[in-house]
Amino acid sequence: MQRTARTLAGIVAGLALTFASVAPAAGAATTTAPEPGSVAGQTQATDKHKGKHKHSRKCKHTIADIAADMQPGWNLGNTFDSTGSDETSWGNPRVTEEFLDQIRAQGFKSIRIPVTWGQHQGGAPDHTIDPAYLDRVEEVVSWALDDGFHVMINIHHDSWQWVNTMPTNHDAVLDRYSDTWTQVADRFRDADTRLQFESVNEPQFANSSGEAAELELLAELNSVFHEIVRGSGGRNAVRPLVLPTLHTGSDPALLDALAAEIAALDDPNLIATVHNYGFWPFSVNIAGYTRFNAEVQQNLTDQLDLVHAAFTARGIPVVIGEYGLLGFDRHTGTVEQGEKLKFFEFFGHAARQRGFTTMLWDNGQHFDRTAYRWRDQALFDQISSSWTERSGTASSDLVFVPASGDVAAQSLTLNPNGTTFDALLHDGAELTAGTDYTLTGDELTLSAALLEQLAGDRTPGPADELVVRYSSGVPWTVRILNQETPVLQGASGTTGSFAIPTSFTGDQLATMEAKYADGTNAGPQNWTSYKEFDVAFAPDYAAGTIKLTPAFFAEVNDGTVNLTFHFWSGDTVTYTLTKNGSTVVGAP
Question: Which segment of the chain is annotated as a signal peptide (predicted)?
């Protein structure tokens, strides 16, 4: 889905803390012969795509084998799920065969194509889908199948546009949902069984009597979906079907409810799906969770363990239909580079341990759909490496050297993650242990002489880089920056437009606190003094400002507000705001 359109229910589901942890297993056991009524009995080899890809599929014995063959996967986000007139309405270009070839070349084996149907659909009683739109979806699905992908399509933003009104509009919603899937199932009844149907994206319900009622409504939708598809004939009789938890969340009650649904349906070709965007405060950079620390890591581990226990350990394959960081909705820099790399390294490893198939959410912010390249190659290198191996990281990827005065040795804690330290490199050449650095256990100390050399003329800003090479995986890059304590200047403006002139002097902003004069928390989400990055505030390094947003001021009382800006160097800078109606004045 377009992450900025994500509903509160979906976000809250991602925030929920889990309360139990189970030992992970390597994955569900598989049988050596096709199950009765399984996809294996219907699978045929195909040689397609105008000779470009001669795709011959091995017979997959179980649905677990098929799910495993989908790893890794990618989402064609903000395209057919857009709620405008066509697939380009959210800013992405039209999909081409060449583009899908490029995605396949990145190593992805499956593609999730979210589809929002509502704006291309007539009213009751038939809710007819625009044939031209259905033709276009079929065209792209066919290209993807010809490319060798496993493909997943669904009902996407319809979930919050009209499906969510089911508690107060039950029969009308059920009729429209049934009509939608009847038409989609009929159109694709003879498509290759590498095409999968997902019943609904991030299911949610408004104005219900509570979670128990919502679970019943979702079970009803999933059951109707299953009945329609299986009864539509052709390859739909055995097509893999993907069923979500409520909100695609990982709370125990949601997982148990879906596990019970799947058991009741007694169908060998069902896959369970959840979404995972990590520990919510870290994922959006709020409440001071700027680092991928032990708490953030444990929360992710607990979530994945619960999913494994509910499904994989019982022989039900799991596809994590979307994963990433929610802060990417606004800017991929919401989470600091090294911390995001640690998240994706760990996530890929943890999912692989538990036998999950993972599908990266990409609404166009990762793979450039016109230039055909990754916007952040280092990020993709870490993601793709995690599909097969671990990579070593470190406590940080930033080392700050004072722009004036003496230079001292500095230390980083290495996180080998099962690898071993191999070398420290500068410009591809190995540095000398005992002179340039020392390694004691996992503590890597960079000598003062080395740092002074790398700092060059000490001009504030990026200076140089080092690379920690491990025995396997992606090397860890350490950026050396010359830095002085940032300087903030006085400013005046309005609640609709306010920016603090800032000399960052080589530093980078990590987070901001806001408190009233009496010490209570100010601004939105006042359960924490640390505000949400890129929502309440945002640095603009090129312009030399820190912007405070209208959303921040909308929940700030008149009077004095004391701000504390925390920078990655460890420096903090205080600043005072005075708000009077729509007028704002700031002073250091």
Answer: 1-25
